[in-house]
Each structure stands twice: as C-alpha cells, then as structure tokens.
Design goal:
globular; six-stranded parallel sheet; Rossmann fold; 2 domains; four-stranded parallel sheet; alpha/beta
C-alpha cells in the first residue's frame, strides 16, 4: 500500500517512519533540505528513535518536493503540516493543510485524506463540503517533542474521527506499526475528534498553569514549593505527574490549542478556558518581575527549546520571559545550540558555553541541566525535577 505523508515535522516524520516498516511511504515537504536528509536516512528533527529507525530499520521510505510524485496511486494521504495560531483572525492558519487537501484531490482523487495537523472544530466538515468528498478524516496526534516516534510506537490511545471502513483501515495501520498492541482505539464523529484534541491539550495546559500558580504563591511567600507539590500530589486523584513548575506552557500545541479552543467558545458561556490562557500570561509576568528585581546587568538565556531532547523553540515560554526582561532595558544573551543565526531578537547567540557563563551574571533556564550545576547560584529556574 502506498501512503503519502505531507509535512516532515515531528508528527509527519514519526508517522512516515512508523508506517514505512510495513508500507511504501512517500514523504512530501516544501523544504528541499529536509527531503534530502530523509533520502540520505538522516533525521531532519531531534528525535532519538527516529534517528535510530532511519539507520537500523528496513524502511520503504522516500521523500520528494513534488506533490504529483508523492500522491499518485496513494491509498492514504496524511496531512501533518503546521497550523500556527493567527492572533489577527483568532483562528489557526490552516492554509497549508487546505493546500495539501486540494493537491490530494487532484493527484489522488480516490485516496482517503487523514488530517493529523491540529485544526479548529468544524474544519473537516468544511473541507468535506468544499470538496464534495467524505473521504477526509481527522485523527488527533498525541506525542511529545523529541519522543514522537516512541509515542507512536507505544501510543496511549488511537482516535480516528470517523466510523467508516477507511477509518478502521487507518487505525489498523497505526496498530500494525506500533509495538504496543493493546492500546484503546476510539472511533468518533469528525467534529468530536477535533474537540478531543483541543480539550485534551487545554486540560494539560490547565494542569501546567495550576502548578505554576502554586509555585508563584510559594515564591511570593518564601515557602518551599517542592514540599507543597509533594503533599498535594500524594492524593491519588491528583497524582505525581505533570506537576513540575516551569516558566509557562509553550511549544507546538498548548499555546495555540488553548487559544483556538477559547475562540471556539465565542458563543458559549465559559470562564475556565479564558483563565487558563490568561494564567500563562500572568505566570510569565511574575517570573520576569522576579528576575528584574534582582537587577542583573546581563541575563543569559539558557536554551530556547521547550524541553530536553527537542530542537523546537516555537512559542517556548522562556522567549516570553526574555522579551519582558529586554523591555526593561536589560540586555540578554542566548545559548542555543539548535539556533544557527548569530542573533535572536537582536540578542547575541553565544555558541561557547564557557563564554556564555562568563558573560551573564544571571542565567535563566526553564529546565535545569547538569552543565549548569557549577554556577547553580547564578541560575534562576522553577524546575524541581530536572525533567519535562
């Protein structure tokens, strides 16, 4: 079976590798560099399992920039292109997803199109009506940056937004590729599947915001955050997971998904969803104010990425802290190995860690790292566990 995967980010790359073990997969991307890397069996993203599978597994995988080559005769076209949140329209920018769907209808008119990109509630229904074709499905993806293939090999659940035979065939493909075989598989309506993704990520954001506000309270009153969180988390209904304070939630999904869900509530009474979004802003204000109060001459920003093992720093919370600090006239320098540019928002990028440590009198880190332990007294972090 030929399968096309459009988009070579975390979602698309992990799915392409997963499915290429048992199927012919042709990946499609507009970035010639990423396409070349895949064809040379090099991972274009930071992910240990993807890197290992590309070099050690027998995969029927190729990549191209040509839509016709990728899609002709495909049984499934999986769309995993970015959908950034557009604050001007208060909605996701789904233009890349719509473009791939149009290409699929042109080059593979009989293919089932499976949207893996996060989209607003009602998107699939609109696409089906626009193209006069019911073979467009949504299947939410639940994965972590840097562990994307691992999470598809060991999925917590599989959700497909349709009840028809094509949806079941697609779910079977995911089960076939996975190592875990006993995961729950749920078939829902298209709109319900879209809502599942947004509500799932908003709940995670709510949990992050809750423990961040707990930390803000403790810091304001000079209390021990760790002891409070340990005590709260001993309640089995709450649990000792996803409770490590940070500078705020960020990354690929949580910032845009919470805002999109809030936009979907425009005609529905709500308070909690808006509070989650506002809490993240408040947390960044609080952290920045604490840093500014220390009157540093130069602030070093250690890593822009959201978490260890990731090379993504899109919407990372530490950027929000950095912008607030710079707005007060305090210069910042950045240490980020994943960044090739010499400047980041007009702040110098320092590539030598020793130089970085020497030039900054205060270093901020969303997550503590072993290479900062020698200057622990000059590091500001909310991290209690050294994990994400």
């Amino acid at each position: 079976m030929k399968i096309t995967v459009a988009g070579l980010g975390y979602v698309g790359m992990s799915l392409a590798v997963l499915l290429a073990k048992h199927n012919k997969v042709v990946a499609l991307d507009i970035d010639e560099t990423r396409v070349g890397q895949v064809n040379r069996r090099q991972s274009p993203i930071e992910d240990t399992e993807i890197r290992d599978w590309l070099t050690r597994q027998d995969l029927d995988l190729s990549a191209t920039t040509e839509a016709a080559d990728a899609m002709t005769d495909a049984a499934f076209v999986i769309v995993a292109t970015p959908t950034n949140y557009d604050p001007r329209t208060n909605h996701f920018d789904t233009s890349s997803v719509e473009a791939v769907i149009a290409q699929a209808r042109r080059h593979a008119p009989d293919a089932t199109v499976v949207v893996k990109s996060t989209v607003p509630v009602g998107f699939v229904a609109r696409m089906r009506a626009q193209h006069g074709y019911d073979g467009i499905l949504f299947s939410p993806e639940f994965l972590r940056e840097g562990r994307a293939l691992y999470d598809n090999l060991h999925p917590s659940r599989i959700v497909v937004g349709d009840h028809g035979p094509a949806a079941r065939r697609f779910a079977d493909l995911l089960v076939q590729g996975a190592i875990r075989k006993d995961m729950p598989v749920l078939f829902t309506g298209a709109v319900e599947a879209e809502a599942i993704k947004l509500f799932s990520n908003t709940y995670l954001a709510l949990r992050v915001a809750y423990f961040n506000e707990l930390d803000s309270y403790a810091r304001s009153r000079d209390l021990n955050t760790r002891e409070i969180i340990e005590g709260v988390s001993l309640d089995p209904r709450i649990g000792d997971h996803y409770n490590n304070p940070s500078f705020g939630y960020g990354g690929y999904c949580l910032p845009k998904d919470t805002k999109q869900l809030l936009a979907n509530y425009d005609q529905v009474p709500q308070n909690l969803i808006a509070a989650v979004v506002e809490s993240n802003r408040t947390r960044k204000d609080f952290v920045a104010d604490q840093i500014i109060a220390r009157q540093p001459r130069v602030v070093g920003v250690y890593r822009l990425v959201m978490k260890a093992g990731s090379d993504n720093f899109r919407d990372s919370s530490i950027q929000g802290i950095m912008k607030r600090i710079k707005a007060k006239g305090i210069p910042c320098i950045v240490y980020e190995p994943a960044l090739v540019d010499p400047l980041f928002f007009n702040s110098p990028v320092i590539r030598n860690l020793a130089d970085f440590k020497a030039k900054a009198d205060l270093i901020i880190a969303n997550r503590m790292a072993g290479e900062l332990q020698d200057i622990r007294d000059r590091v500001y972090t909310a991290d209690l566990k050294g994990i994400d």
